[in-house]
Structures are given as C-alpha cells and as structure tokens.
Amino acid sequence: MSAAGTLARPTSPGCDRPVLRERGQHEVFCGLTGIVWLHRKIQDAFFLIVGSRTCAHLMQSAAGVMIFAEPRFATAIIEERDLAGLADMHDELDRVVTQLLERRPDIKLLFLVGSCPSEVIKLDLSRAAERLSQKTLPQTRILAYTGSGIETTFTQGEDSCLNALVPLMPTTQEKNLLIAGTIADVVEDQFRTLFTAMGITNVGFLPARRAGALPPIGPNTQLLLAQPFLGETLKALEARGATRIDAPFPFGAEGSELWFRATAKAFGIPQERVTPIIDAPRERARRAVARHRDTLDGKSIFFFPDSQLEIPLARFLARELGMRPIEVGTPYLHRGILGADIDLLPDAVLSEGQDVDRQLARCRAEKPDLTVCGLGLANPLEAEGLRTKWSIELVFSPVHGFEQAGDLAELFARPLERTARLRV
C-alpha cells in the first residue's frame, strides 16, 4: 500500500473542494459491533456470529452483557479442528443452529454473521443460510451477512445486514416514505409523529422492529437515509425502485429541519404547512444545544476516520456550536450521500481513507481541543494530553432529530467539561 496522500478535486455536486485521499495503514474497529444496536432494534431476530473466541469476547465487552442476561446474539466458535479441516464446518454449523432454535423457538429471523476467521477459511455462509432456511421456514428465516473486521469501518456491519434484508421487502405501487438506518425506537416514534402531522402517513422504517414487518418498496417509494454509511443498502433500495431524497442528515436543529423540509418538498407539501409543525421542536433543539455553546464555541476539533458520521457531525458542531473543524476524516467519502452536508461544512481539510501515522502527525501538530477517534487511538492520545471522544459512542447513542440535539451536543461537551473540573 502506498503511504502517500494525494489531493483530488471531486466533480460531483456538493464536493467541489479538495479531498485528501490517503491509502496506508489504518485503524479499524470490528464490524461485528453493529450487532449491539441491531439486536436491540429487531426484537425477534438473533445474530449468530461464526467466529473465534476473540469475536465472542469482543461482543461481550462491546455490549456490556451481564452474566445473568440472555442476549439475542451468540458466537459459534471456530475451533482448531475446524481451522485444520478435521471437522466439517457445515455439519458443525447445522448442529449449533438446530440446538439454538430448539432452545429459542421465538426466533423469527436468524442472521449468520461472518467474521475474519470464517472468511479466511472461505466458509460460504450465504449458501449455508439458504440451505438451512429450507429446513426452518416458515418458523424461522435464516440470512447471512459479513461483519468482518477486514471491512473498511465498523458501521459497514449494519450496511451489510440491511442489504441482506432488501430482497425480502414486499413490493408496492403506492407512494410511501421509507427511512433506512437503525435509529432508537423513541426517535422513530418522534419522526413518525412529525411526518403524520405533515400529512405523510405511509411511513416505513428499515430495519423494522419485527422481522415480519419489513416495509414495502416500489417505484413510488421516496427514500430517506438516517445513517450516512449505507452505501450498499442504498444501491439495493434504488434497484428496487426507490428514489432518494437529498438532504443533510438529521443531526441538530438545522440538520433536522432541512431533513424534514426536503421530505415535504418531495411529497409536494407546501413549506408553509411544515413550518408550524416543526417550529416548537426546532426551538427546543436550539435551546438544548445552546446550553453547551459556551463550552464548545471556538474550540478546535479533529476527526479521525472511523464511523462515516464525521462530515454531518462536523457540520452540526461548526454551524450550531461554533466549533472549528481542523480535519474531517472519513473512511469512505460517498459524495452522493454526503453532498448536502459538505455544502454546509465550513472550511476544513476533508480526508478520505487513512494513513494513520501521517494523520497522527497532523493531529499532534495542530493540538486540537477535541479529537474524535476510535478506541485504539483514544487512550494514547489522552496520555499525550489531548482530549478525545470515542466515535463509537456516537453510533450507540440516540442522537438523531430535534429532541436529541441537546444530547448530541453534550456528548462533545463532556470531555472538555471533565477536564475543566479536574483542573479546578
């Protein structure tokens, strides 16, 4: 791999600014962690990781599962005999799946989740899922996707999962709104309430709360992304006929307002009808965000590439809290998805991909007030005196929409407030 970064000027709308493209060593958190929020969302699904003991320890640690809990995920351990070819992995997998479904007959959707070890030994989980489904349907459907840490970033686990669900979505000719991306149930309810008030009542969410309640899709489906890391899912949904609504992501008061207004425009709803509906929640969001402006205003921030949330978050922090983005790194810059947010982002270095040593050198030279990065970089940077925010916390937490805008701002204010208290 080349260690050099190159500047390239994209030609797509919303990206008419230089982008530093880096292709070198990069820090990657495992895509299996997407199970943490996916298993909470799809209430009758189960996620069976086909991986090593390391995969199992990672998931237990990431989810904080207590000893008496019975979560809806587990790991089918690949042992040394499996790696050595002394055991038939398909027979072993069949046995584990059979035992699991006998013990948990409430499972309606079972995901076989690939990992680094299962990919290294070329275990075809897609064919295994298809074969097993023939035995378990109609009680349980079995699907497969990869959560391998070999992927670009940990959020691609969700992208792979939702992409696997798209072929199962029923077809409709009706005009409807589809929101793609895992969001907390309370946020989903808030969004549905506002869309209903606007007159958009045919609203579906992917993923749905129940495996059998997948939303319909067709040529009259208007699509909103709630998460910016769903590139493959977006392609699959568009292939089914959906038309994406171009809008900034609903982070903060401004992003949420523009998200709702863009949707109203796509449905032919006059903006004057939208204004009284969103006025009150927008003002609540502004007041909640303003409480943290004194802490964050004028402070510099540096984003390492990790979650693909970096650009919309930088836009929110700069425009609503007065922060000064120095560098906004993202694992992959999807210009079509992020163009509206880039249009609103003040001057900052945009970087795609990573050469971690070069980026660490730039971060140390700038000495930002706050650095957003993965867990692997946070502790070393803290030891050097830099304040950090774990990027994975921004994915785990409910941060979308008007009512969560203050909570989102608080996540960035906490590290600086903690430092101020320690100094006293």
Task: Give the SSE map.
Blueprint lengths: L4 E4 L10 E5 L10 H8 L3 E7 L1 H11 L9 E5 L2 H4 L5 H15 L5 E6 L1 H5 L4 H12 L4 E6 L9 H10 L10 E5 L4 H14 L4 E4 L14 E5 L5 H9 L3 E2 L7 H15 L4 H20 L2 H4 L3 E4 L6 H12 L2 E7 L4 H10 L4 E6 L1 H11 L3 E4 L1 H9 L4 E3 H6 L8 H19 L1
Parallel strand pairs: 2-13, 3-4, 3-5, 5-6, 7-8, 7-9, 9-10, 11-12, 11-14, 12-13, 14-15
Antiparallel strand pairs: 1-2
Query: What ranges have pLDDT less than 50 throughout 5 or more consecutive residues?
Result: 1-15
CATH architect. name of the largest domain: 3-Layer(aba) Sandwich
Helix count from the secondary structure assignment: 18
Share of residues in helices: 40-55%
Q: Count the domains.
A: 3
CATH topology of the largest domain: Rossmann fold
Distance between the termini: 47 Å
Overall CATH class of the largest domain: Alpha Beta
Helix-and-strand structural type: alpha/beta
Radius of gyration: 22 Å
What overall form do the CA principal axes indicate? globular
Description:
The chain is an alpha/beta fold and 424 residues long. The protein folds into 3 domains: 5-27 and 289-423, Rossmann fold, CATH 3.40.50.1980; 31-151, 3-Layer(aba) Sandwich (Rossmann fold); 169-244, Rossmann fold (3-Layer(aba) Sandwich), CATH 3.40.50.1980. It is 46% helix and 17% strand. The chain is built from 18 helices and 15 strands. The strands form 3 sheets. The protein has a 7-stranded mixed β-sheet, sandwiched between helices. The protein has a 4-stranded parallel β-sheet with strand order 4-3-5-6, sandwiched between helices. The protein has a 4-stranded parallel β-sheet with strand order 8-7-9-10, sandwiched between helices. Helix 10 packs antiparallel against helix 11 (271-290). The chain is globular. The chain starts with a strand and ends with a helix. 48% of the residues are buried.
